[in-house]
Amino acid sequence: MKTLVVDDELVSRKKMQKIMVNFGECEEVESGSAAITAFKKALQNRTPFDLITLDIAMPEMDGIEVLFEIREIEDQKNITGGKQVKILMVTSHSDRDNIITSIQAGCNDYIVKPFDREMVIEKLENIKSGKRISVTDMEDI
Fold first, then answer.
1. Best CATH choice for the domain 3-115 from the list 3.40.50.720, 3.40.50.2300, 3.30.70.3270, 3.10.105.10
2. Distance between CA 141 and CA 133 in Å, rounded?
3. Measured distance between the N- and C-terminal CA atoms of the chain, rounded to whole angstroms
4. Exposure letters 86-117 (e unless 16+ CB within 10 A, then b)
5. CA dihedral for 18, 21, 23, 28, sign (positive or negative)
6. Above 90 in pLDDT, residue 21?
7. How far is CA 141 from the centre of its chain?
8. pLDDT tens digits, residue range 31-76?
9. Residue 109 is inside which H or E element, if any?
10. Are 85 and 52 in contact (CB under 8 A)?
11. Does the model's pTM come out above 0.85?
12. Engineering a disulfide at 131: which of 12, 56, 78, 126 sits with its beta carbon 3.0 to 4.6 angstroms away?
């Protein structure tokens, strides 16, 4: 699995990268604009990412804006359904509004910081099984 970890916070980015490297190739970037650049480059090189872990709260371009842009790029390139990159939103706040917006924008699941290896593995299993989080799953927030 080829993964892109996007987080402006160094400790969280390195922690997620350390977990994800166990599942395959893993790149990391610290900003939304760098994430868009890496996503486009991977598509151009025909080596797309399978998964992007995307922090919601980042300066300049937040994770929700990145999510919208990635889905827009996929739409323009007719990348649909199972061929779309899987996106796991990462947030330090269980901010219901941001998570609902992320779900509506097309993320596959979300995880609340602080996270650990087991939490990430559980989310990956959900994504792999095709389960997509929905707004009705939000009672716990």
1. 3.40.50.2300
2. 13
3. 30
4. bbbbbbeeeeeebbebbbebbbbbbbbbebee
5. positive
6. yes
7. 19
8. 999 999 999 999 999 999 999 999 999 999 999 999 999 999 999 9
9. strand 109-112
10. yes
11. yes
12. 126
Rg over CA atoms, the chain: 14
pLDDT digits (tens, 9 = 90+) for 97-138: 888 888 888 899 999 889 999 999 999 998 888 766 665 555
Which of 103, 53, 54, 48 is closest to 77 using CA atoms? Answer: 48
Place of tokens 């166990």: 22
For the chain, the domains span 3-115
